[in-house]
Structures are given as C-alpha cells and as structure tokens.
Amino acid sequence: MLTKCLFPAAGYGTRFLPATKAMPKEMLPIVNKPLIQYGVEEAIEAGIHQIGFISGRGKRAVEDHFDISYELEHQIQGSSKENLLQEIRQVIDQCSFAYTRQIEMRGLGHAILTGEALVGRDPFAVLLADDFCVSDGPGVLAQMVRLFEEHACTVVAIEEVPRDATQNYGVIAGDEIAPGLFRVSEMVEKPAPADAPSNLAIIGRYILTPDIFDILRETPPGRGGEIQITDAIAKQAEHGRVLAFQFEGRRFDCGSLHGFVEATNFVYQTRFIGE
What is the dihedral of CA 251, 257, 263, 269, to 10 degrees? Predict the structure, then answer.
C-alpha cells in the first residue's frame, strides 16, 4: 500500500528571480493556486495522504500554506470569500504533513536521501511540483500507483522529447513490454543528443522502493557534481526492477518562464473562462 509522497522543495528558484528572492518558487501561483498545492492534490487523488516536504531556508511559506490561518478565516467568515479557502482546508483535513531540511544543495538524489527519515522502509512516491501535469482522466501519479500495485517495483514517468533536448533530462532505454510501458535497461542523466539512448525523458514523478536509500548512500556525485537519482535508479534497473511509463496527460515545465506562463494560460482558459 503506497501512502507516502515526498516533495523536494529546497531549491532556490533562481530562474524566477527577483520573484523568488523572498518567496519559495513552489508557492508561485498557477492562476489562484500555488504549484505545490496542485502537486499535493495529485497525491491525494492517487490515494496518498502522508506528505513529506524536503525544504530549506526561506521555505516557511510552504509550511504556513498547509496550516490553518485562524486570523484570516475569522476575518472572512460569513463573507462571499469564505468559500475560496475551501479547497485548501480539504487538503489540510485529508493529509498529515512532515518536514525536514536539506542543509546542502547536492542534487535530487541527496534531497530524496534526506527524506529517508520521513518515509522509513516503505515504498513512496516523489513528486516535483515544477512539473505541472494535467489529464482528462486519472492524474499521472494515480496512473503510476496502479502499475506499482501490479508490479511492486520502481516506476518512473516518461514522455517523448525532441532529440536536441535530451541534455535537459534523465533518459531511459528499455524493452516495451506493453503499450507505453518499458522495462528499463539503462538510464543516463542529461546525455548529449548524440549519446542519448532514446528520446524518452523522465519527468518529475517517481514511485521508489525503499532499497533506493541504500543505493543512494553508495552513489558518488555524478553529472554537475551532484548525487543524481537517475544514477541510483539505474542500479535498480540492472536487476530488472524499474518500469518507465508514458503517462496519459500533458506536462508543463513550470521550472521555466515559458512553461509557467503556458501552464497559467492553459488553466485560465480551461477552468476559469465562462465562470
């Protein structure tokens, strides 16, 4: 039973300066809701209610967002604005939240290892809020949970990217065992287009088995001098214990200005026009 999800949220968000000088990038709003809330709601839809944040200095706003603001609720009680807090109150009521800090920025693999105390020896999901995903049906994480329940191994979400963009992603190679489902044989972090084993890129959705922590402890710094989760999952793949899944839906790279604006426009057009 998958009940826990980690949200790495310790990065500086430098691509959004000066907006992120005093505000966490995870709190940047897609219309009227912060990125991190969309991510937690996706976890809830997948049946996951134990939420762990790997945060850092200057991230207090994330903790405050997933807490009750008694003063604010008192001020708007009985007014037409009271219902605007209904969604976040439902999130707070459905989840338990735990927090730990990544003291040094040493890569996603290190951030996940920092979260070991929050998940213990249970399988867990990892969701990167920068990758904002939408779907007409079940969310990406819910799709992956179904696969995990069937196969009981690590599952990563992938999508096709242009060949000239592989240097921005972890890239997989493997055998297609069902439509859109691959048993991974190789994973490479940010390969040059000429060296990429495919154009199937990993996005910010993972379901990991707890042995990943022991592997991460033995994983040396890789690309960029950081501990890469891709390198650790590649070790699992050597034993045939990793699946890659082409999810149904659409991803927006909200770690970039272009993707953030594109996501904002999409949500506004599809969810707010005509209200």
Answer: -150
